[in-house]
Design brief:
Chain lengths: 400, 406, 123
Amino acid sequence: MMLPDPASTGLARVRKIEGSALGLRTPAFAPEEGAGDLLEVSLGPHHPSTHGVFRMDVVLDGERIVRLKPVFGYLHRNHEKLGEGTSYLGSMPYTDRLDYLNSMTNNWAYAIAVEKLAGIAVTERAEYIRVILAELSRLLNHTCLAGFLMQDCGCSGTPLMYAFREREKILDLFESLSGSRMMCNFQRFGGCRVDPSAEWLAATRKLVDGYGAFLDEFEALLSGNEIVMARTQGVGRLPAALAVNAGVTGPMLRASGVGHDLRKVDGYGVYPRFNFRVPIGREGDVYDRYMVRMLEMRESISILDQALRGLPGGPILDPKSKQRGLRPKAGEAYGRIEGPKGEIGFFLVSDGTGNPTRYRVRAPSFVNLTILEDLCLGHSVADAVIILGSIDIVLGEVDR
Amino acid sequence: MILAAAPASPADAWLERAPVLLRDALTGWLPDALRPWVAALLSIATILGVFGLLFAYMTLAERKILGRIQNRPGPNRTGPFGLLQPFADAIKALTKEDIVPRAADQVLHFLAPVVLVALSLIGLAVIPFGRNLVAVEMEASVLYFFAAGAATELAIFMAGWASRNKYSLLAAMRALAQLISYEVPLLLSVVPVIVVAGSLSTTDIVAAQGGWAAGLWPHWHALTPWGFSAFAVFMVAALAESNRSPFDLPEAESELIAGHLTEYSGFKYALFFMAEYLGMAALSAMAVTLFLGGWQAPLAVLEFIPSYAWFGVKLLLLLLGFIWIRATFPRLRIDQLTRLSWKFLVPLALVNLINGGVWAATADWTGAAAVVRWFISALGVVVPFIFLARSLSAGYGPRTYRYASP
Amino acid sequence: MDLHPYAFLALFLLVAIAFPIVLLAVAQVWFRFFQPPKPSPSKQDPYECGVAPHGDAWIQFKAHYYLYAIVFLIFDVELLFLLPLAVAFTGLPVGAWVAILVFLFLLAEGLVWAWHRGHLEWS
């Protein structure tokens, strides 16, 4: 991919990198002289729309944002340092708590990193199960996101409740498989923990078959809604160049028109066996980010359908594989997958002992959040709220 | 007592006259000097009681209906079907600590909810709830109603400013923007009704909507092309005027925490809700009066049902519409709200003014000419609507999406 | 036997003001006897999402809708003129109708002008 010259983007972010502090006022958004005082408001951490304990320190000129400083760290719990003091298997349940909506994909990305580090092969059935669970996660995440976004737009809960009804169904599946609804702790090195029963597969099949109808209903209510379009189109435009420069990944990046999807680029797991497309947007605004996710869910349904049909027999885990007391030989590995929010990656350095000497998480929502100010400047408070909603952050992952 | 044969006119039925008879029975024994004052207090108490109860059960109905729309049961723990919920809420609100920020303007902070409730209530004085049920007969009652209604936004501004909270300040400013945007279409949409009815009195306006065309089609204003357009504009403006979704910008909870309500707690908070629902009910009652024939029955054969029951049914249907809209739509942004008003509703209402004038001037057209009259009026609604709606939604629309090449 | 309308409205206004005050007074009585208020500095701070508030909320706020407000003033006054015209409409001679139309036209023209000049946009 061609990386544009950072200097040519001419956006606030670039200058921030050059050393000036966060909260740079670009001339285009400078307040008019004598038109009124600036109002410094803190949106968050205790705010209905910051999706957790996140804070935006905004400076307003009337309703317009002239400065925005994201403040986070309220949920920091030393995740990466904990990982250095914990055995390889011991870190698996901690990864659940990163993006707590998508513990399945967090597990998978971490498992891939360890498998690379220790050279463990994954059984074929496990690869399929991982795909199934990852795509279910994607459905769950995007459905919730759409519901939250509409809530931020000012819906009185109806889309959110519809979304949560579907989320419940997926969580029920997760619960019956792993024993936990959100903190699944499901993947193991070389496979996964539990073999899904025939009933579970039948229930999943039923959910997958019905999901398209739910999406049709949801989209009929919202995607063409005049107010939704008026509120989201042209708001929070993210140019492709800035998106690439800032390391934005996932649906955010694809909404800006860059067709970068690790499932295609890396072809990890058994994804190359499935037939699916990668939807991309043109404008890179909030509406595109919403629609790209809606379209991605349709592709996920198709992947799930293929994976459920092609699920092979065999073991889910090599019985001789070692989980506890794993001591990979010295080296380093970076495992990444296309999580629902973007590229979730784990970088592990081993010195041959039972714990990694370095454990680093590349959290997609953290990286995607860095361009928040660029997206919000010049827009109103109401827009900032939906822009933040469209970025799709989970504070467990941002703060780690 | 021998029951008389069916009365000749529905106005004579005893059920129809029951409220008036009751009032006379209660005040008949009083000395003449006192009687009108007691009668007036009685009607005020009735309005307060009925609309107070309506407010209580509107909150419950809203939560129930929102719940049903959102796949959840809504309140159902307090009494059968949650019927005691409003009282539980009231007790809770009464016993909550009343916290006033130190920095706030204490007087204004106290005054705002009081003024808001008072202003939301007094408009109800001129609504004819039934054939003989209007608290006060006045020449300029429509004007009075809107004068009282317009002041409610100012009370919200008062609350927002007095709180000395930044979110409240933003809410106060939004309330003002809303006021200057929606006063004009609200009033403009009423003017053609006044033109056609030839009076500013609500009783006369209801009387002008009596009767049926061909015995079937009520002469309600909303059932004429110009009247329908005016009704639609009025209802949109009424939504905005009562700060209801999708125009609930001052209290936009996803943006401004609770807007002007942020620094209110205890019963003052409840008073704001009371004012919101009373205002909503008052505006709906006005809409019923102006456009839906007031207390008139939809069909002549249904006139045996008392007029105030018809009024209640229509009022509840409109209020249900408010709830349904709240469950359905996202919120507009403030600039879109003002744009919707000034670039869509105001021009539409202005055109409709002429449309209503033409309708009034051609009142004596009958037979084939009546069809032409309807056609002209319909044209005067549809053409500007299409024209204005296009310009309003210019710049956005559904999109098609590409897929990355593999 | 009926009161003068204005007397009734004045009475209604009095009752309407008294109504919320009585309710608030009931709450005060409750606090007095059962639940004395416990003020504290942090409780009585203005709410600012859980962080210490800095800066005043009483600022000179930039009203983006300043121009709307002026257009609104014009329209509101003109509407007041329209109401008596509307009441008398059906009884008026043709000449008066033309005058009303001219008045309406001026009103509409003002709106079109403001629209055209871009005054109906947020600045």
